[in-house]
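Teaching assistant here, posting this on the class forum so everyone can see the example we discussed in section. The complex has two components, and the goal was to see what a joint structure prediction looks like when all of them are supplied at once.
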Amino acid sequence: MTEELVVNIGPSHPSTHGVCRMVTTLDGEIVRHVEVVIGHLHRGIEKMAENRTYLQVVPLTDRLDYVGSMYANWAYCRAVERLAGIRVPERAEYLRVIVCELQRIASHMMSVGPAGADVGATTAFMYTFAQREQVVDLFEQLCGARLTYNYVRPGGVSMDVPEGWVDNVRAFCRSHPSAMAEVDRFLFGNVIARQRMKGIGVLAPEDAVAWGASGPVARGSGVSWDLRRDDSYSVYPRLDFDIPLGSNGDCYDRARVRLWEAIESCRIIEQALDQIEPGPVMAEAVPRLITPRPGEAYDHIEGARGSLGVYLVSDGTPRPYRMKVRSPAFCNLALVPMLAEGHTLSDLVVILGSLDPVFGEVDR
Amino acid sequence: MNINELREHLCSEYPDLCPLFSVEFGDGSLTVAAERLYSAASDMRDLGFDRLGMVTAVDRGETFELVYRVTSREMRAGIFLKAEVPREDPHIKSLCDLWPAANWHEREVYDMFGIVFDGHPDLRRILLTDDWVGYPLRKDYEDERMIRRPDYI
């Protein structure tokens, strides 16, 4: 036992994966207590939404989880569609599934690579970023944007796919699993990376449930909970896919679950591309000024980080009376103090990275 | 217990609230008096609603409506628990000892609406700075930096 030392990490620190401040109490090199201070990226998106029409809120949702914009778009649009009773054409549902699974790959690449970089294996970062870049290029061909897409709109999607896009997606889905197998071999097979990640930040399944963890964080602990299967929405019931589960709930399992999910996503995309039929991509007669009846609606989807829900309250005017975003990263980040206790300071960074927080979504 | 049995059970337990109760995923909703919220939430947890999804509030003018979402993996169902607290001096019992997940969610509601959660272990602002004045998601919040969009739509 040495004298306890309080070290402030962040808010601007590369290893914090965003603007997150951690007030850490250290005993030598061992973390005794962490206090996570968030809110540095708080832009008041929920308040801003109250001052905009339903359509004007869609670009705001892009800025929530800027690594996976499509998810927030979709969750919000589902809530609006539920509130206003809009039926989405089938082709649009397929396109939403396809872009969101592509987004899952792009988002997980942003997590698996840095998981390696956190433990000093920077090579993996380059490989996963090459894959992410391909997905972002596909999105650029699709809607012109590389980061904030504004593609999923209430009633459908903003535009149909351009010529040749489907072939590009198929080519990507053919090459992606082998690239992932390679990353799996040299990152998760690497003895140093394994030693740095195995047994670090173990999350028990009952804690994962009690703390409301979801997505790969919960599934890394073996909690089999995935909204795509357990509250199947859109066209997911017609698609066949597995849900990878971890067994130990440590940083290694969480990162590896993401890697396998990225491979499963390719399977989903290929099936969706086989099943998709020509047709309209936007519901007919969606008004510019959506004015739902007074009431409330909640809808959620399985985002890259977990259950992403949007709760909307309407008072019968063209603007939402209240919008609440149930952010999975916010819930997952609350685990940091519990997971980091007793580990070394260098492991704290690995643990934070393994929860894959995106602070746009945590702080909203 | 499946979702219909759950519905019957809840209806016998909370008869006055039953008519609005629906069982579609995401739409089940149950409004209870603020002082009964904790015991209702505790019952729900014992019935298998093992996950607290979110806590939020809606400014309803005279009152604040608190909205809790609890979900059950086993039943594949989710329910909204709602309670109203008065605008003046809003208080409600914290659910932190039922679900640790409530900790950050309740701090956020306190931060944005100023609702005090009795028994919360660490009730401080979470997203805003500690010296912030006012509660921004209240409808009467005013701030000279706030820009209202013109009403042309």
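For the discussion questions: Chain A has a mean pLDDT of 88. Chain A touches chain B through 35 residues (CB under 8 Å). Think about how each of these relates to the inputs above.
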